[in-house]
Amino acid sequence: MSKRLFDIFLTMLAIVALFPFMIVTYLLVKLTSKGPALYWSKRVGSCNRLFLMPKFRSMRTGTPQIATHLMNQQANPNSFLTPVGSFIRKTSLDELPQLWSVLKGDMSVVGPRPALFNQDDLIALRTEKGVQTLKPGITGWAQINGRDEIPIPQKVALDTHYLQHQSLWLDFKIILLTILKVLRRDNISH
C-alpha cells in the first residue's frame, strides 16, 4: 500500500470516528468566543510551498501567528487563549480539521509538523537537511519525542531521522505512540 492510500484510508476512518468530537469542538469554540471556529494558518508544505492549514481556533482573534516556543518567550500564551482553548489544545482537538489537509494532499498523517510561514530558522535548517522534500504531517517523529519542548536543531535531527527511515511500519508506530501520548497528555502545549 502506498503512503497516499494509507493516508486516505486512515483519514476516512478518523473522520467517521471523530466526527462527533469535531461537531462538539466547533460548537464549543463558536459559543465561547467571538470570531470563526476555524482559522486557516499559513504553513510551509512540501518543497517549501505555502498552503493554508485549518485548525479549530484556540486563541483569541488577533493573536499573532508565531510559534509556541516564541510566544512563550514574549508573553504569557494563556492570556491569548479562548475559554476552551487550553482544553482543545491539551486534548489535540484543535488539530482535527487538518484531516481536510490530508485528504486534499497538502499534508500526510505522518511527517514533520508544518512550520509557520515565518519560522525562518526551522525552514532553513530543514531545507539544509533535505526534510523539506517530505509532506508535513499531523503527527511525526519529533512530535512523539518532545513536541514544542525541544530545540529546533533537535527537532530537525528527529525530522531527518524520519526522512532517512520512513516506512509504513514507522508511520503506524508513530500513530500508535501519538494516540498514547494524547491520551496520557504527554508533552502537550497549552
TrEMBL record:
GO molecular function: transferase activity
Domain Bacterial sugar transferase: 3-183
Coiled-coil stretches: none
UniProt keyword Lipid metabolism, yes or no: no
Entry's transmembrane regions: 6-29
This protein's UniProt keywords: Membrane, Transferase, Transmembrane, Transmembrane helix
Pfam families: Bac_transf
Family according to the record: Belongs to the bacterial sugar transferase family.
Protein name: Sugar transferase
Species assigned in the record: Methylophilus flavus
